[in-house]
Amino acid sequence: FCRDVARITGEIIASHFQPDTLMAMTGIQLPTDAEVQQQRLAAQQQALIAQAQAQQAPPAGAMPMQPMPTQGIAA
Questions:
Q1: DSSP character for 66?
Q2: 22-66 pLDDT, tens digit each
Q3: Helices (H) and strands (E) in the chain — how many of each?
Q4: Which helix (H) or strand (E) holds 33?
Q5: Phi and psi angles of residue 73, each rounded to the nearest 5 degrees, phi first
Q6: Angle at the Cα of 9 (from 3 to 33), degrees rounded to 5?
Q7: For position 4, what pLDDT does the model report?
Q8: Which of 7, 63, 66, 71 shows its CA 20 to 30 Å from the CA of 39?
């Protein structure tokens, strides 16, 4: 019940006050639309990079290749 009341209160506040008014009342600096868009693009780029790296990584549990020792081997 309390969660629903808080959600409805937030919706009412957001619909009746401009972002500038809310920032002045609370002292909190809200991000601009451009900043939000930039953050979304950065997150998408990071996700794509992580996905590409995961596809290039060896399967879990795979043994890394190690060079063969050259000393002490009889011909």
A1: -
A2: 889 889 888 888 999 999 999 999 999 988 888 876 666 666 666
A3: 3, 0
A4: helix 33-56
A5: -95, 125
A6: 105
A7: 96
A8: 7
Residue with tokens 């399967």: 59
**pLDDT tens, 55-68?**
876 666 666 666 66
Q: Which two tokens stand for residue 75?
A: 């011909």
Specify whether the CB–CB gap between 32 and 40 falls below 8 A: no
45 HSE (CA, 13 A, CB side): 6
The length of the chain, given as a count of residues: 75
Place of tokens 């409805």: 8
Neighbouring residues of 39: CB distance < 8 A, sequence distance ≥ 6: 31
Reduced to 3 states (helix: H, G, I; strand: E, B; else coil), residue 16 is helix
Residue 69 tokens, joined: 């020792």
Residue type, 69: P
